[in-house]
Specification:
The protein is α+β, with helices and mostly antiparallel strands. The protein has two domains: 139 residues, Creatine Amidinohydrolase, Chain A, domain 1 (3-Layer(aba) Sandwich), CATH 3.40.350.10; 217 residues, Creatinase/methionine aminopeptidase superfamily (Creatine Amidinohydrolase), CATH 3.90.230.10.
Length: 372
């Protein structure tokens, strides 16, 4: 069975638990996850009744693309008008032969559907249909990556690592943060990335105290810390990594902060295992930083899931829900300490949760490196 076939089987189990008859999946990463379709206009109707009458709808621009990408388990329908109207018509057609008189429960993503779309869907369907909010039903499946997904994320990490190594060969001192960021994004594209996973962060000196600093035109100076946060998107899947480098001799405070963040990050990596709570794992790193007197300077969470999107569940933070890590989760481990007006240090790895703990996917060294 193909990857998309296994995903559909897992999804159908969830839909049966909710006593749904059909699920409407709109364009976006959930549609790509279930069908492989990468175009910008498409809908899928998932038959939850076990009859296998899944339907994929798109317009003429994607006729050939859909034939290439969407698996044979979906009947493909090319629509000349409004996709939502066509989907409502298809539901009437497909449900007409059901042996269940009450086969009228349609699941939809109520977190991504606008009020206008909801009203429109109610107008299009006859009165026998019940709309059932199903936000998160596909996202929950996406939290646990299958082997093909992990392979894709590993490839994205390998590409991103190689791109930064290439950029660092040209040094950092005297170049602007913006130039380094642009060169790094260009290097990723030249190595095969479709796009960066997110806007690249390059922040030197006091600017590094901004966790989401935007690269500036100012030149990177000697004897400072430089934080670089970057990632590549390859075959739809993202990577995410942060390294902080020295550009020369550092004072004692900078060295101490770097050592503290590294120790906190290594402790959290060692604690990764199936069954550990998201808040519990965050606390492993946070308690070390708090003990050193810098707890208020670690203001973000320890990490987040990564996959088709750069920020996915599970979220690792003191404010996270009570979920536990599962085998197949891919998460970042990224503690940081930020001293306003002085410096910032963040060290981040992307890991997959295995039976025995964390497998690190980002491979660049983490011991403090000096790049002139």
């Amino acid at each position: 069975m193909s990857g998309t076939g296994r995903r559909l089987e897992r999804l159908l189990e969830r839909l049966r638990e909710r006593e749904l008859d059909w699920l409407l999946v709109g364009v976006g990463v959930n549609l790509r996850y279930l069908t492989g379709f990468t175009g910008s206009n498409g809908l899928a109707l998932i038959d939850a009744g076990g009859r296998g009458r899944h339907r994929f709808l798109t317009d003429f621009r994607y006729d050939t693309q859909a034939a290439q990408q969407v698996p044979a388990g979906f009947e493909r329908q090319i629509v000349s008008g409004d996709l939502l109207a066509a989907a409502a018509g298809a539901l009437g057609e497909l449900s007409g032969g059901s042996s269940r008189a009450d086969a009228r429960r349609l699941g939809f993503d109520d977190a991504a559907t606008s009020v206008k779309q909801h009203v429109r869907l109610l107008e299009l369907l006859d009165s026998g249909w019940e709309l059932v909010g199903c936000a998160g039903v596909v996202e929950d499946l996406r939290e646990v990556k299958d082997a093909s997904e992990i392979e894709a994320i590993v490839a994205a990490c390998t590409l991103a690592d190689a791109a930064l190594e290439r950029v660092l060969q040209g040094g950092l001192v005297g170049r602007s943060e913006r130039d380094v960021a642009i060169e790094l994004e260009l290097a990723m594209r030249r190595l095969g990335a479709q796009t960066p996973s997110f806007p690249t962060i390059v922040a030197a000196g006091a600017h590094g105290a901004l966790p989401h600093a935007e690269p500036r035109a100012e030149a990177i100076v000697p004897d400072a810390l430089v934080t670089i946060d970057w990632g590549a998107q390859l075959d739809g899947y993202c990577s995410d990594c942060t390294r902080t480098y020295a550009t020369g001799r550092l004072d004692g405070e900078a060295q101490d902060i770097y050592g503290l963040v590294l120790a906190a990050q290594e402790a959290a990596l060692a604690a990764v295992r199936p069954g550990i709570g998201a808040r519990e794992l965050d606390a492993v790193a946070r308690e070390r930083i708090e003990t050193a007197g810098h707890g208020e300077r670690f203001g973000h969470g320890l990490g987040h899931g990564v996959g088709l999107e750069i920020h996915e569940a599970p979220r690792l933070a003191r404010t996270a829900d009570d979920r536990e890590l599962r085998v197949g989760n891919v998460v970042t481990i990224e503690p940081g300490v930020y001293l306003p007006g002085s410096l910032g240090v963040r060290i981040e790895d992307l890991v997959v949760v295995g039976e025995q703990g964390a497998q690190r996917l980002t491979k660049l060294p983490k011991e403090l490196q000096t790049v002139g």
